[in-house]
Write a structure and sequence with these properties.
single chain; 117 residues; alpha+beta; two-stranded antiparallel sheet; 2 helices; extended
């Protein structure tokens, strides 16, 4: 199948959907709600129209649900992650590795402690 071209969505059959107009930049839409006894459900809608949900359950379990772009009520994938797996995915998705972020914080603390020199 190859790498999905930027600005496209993917159907359940794996076909690419190209937008008819250039995709304008806007933030991803997110909302969240508490599901009694289950955890917090985060609803996400990308600017390309892909819908997914993340259920952050207690203690430490996470479920990701991906929906069919052609039928937003149909789940096409459900992924269950344990706490350590969710942490690994979060690290992969973060724009800067945690080691780089820690190094930057250490540098800033050193600057503040040294009077900004």
């Amino acid at each position: 199948m190859g790498v999905r071209p930027h600005g496209t969505s993917v159907t359940a059959a794996g076909d690419w959907i190209y937008p008819t107009e250039p995709t304008e930049w806007r933030p991803m839409e997110t909302t969240h709600s508490t599901v009694p006894g289950a955890g917090v459900l985060h609803d996400c809608l990308t600017r390309d129209g892909q819908q997914f949900r993340i259920l952050v359950a207690r203690p430490g379990r996470c479920e990701i649900f991906v929906y069919d772009p052609a039928d937003p009520d149909r789940i096409v994938a459900a992924i269950v992650l344990e706490e350590d797996e969710a942490d690994q995915v979060a690290e992969l998705l973060h724009s800067q590795p945690i080691t780089d972020r820690l190094a930057e914080l250490e540098r800033r603390v050193a600057q503040i402690a040294g009077g900004g020199r």
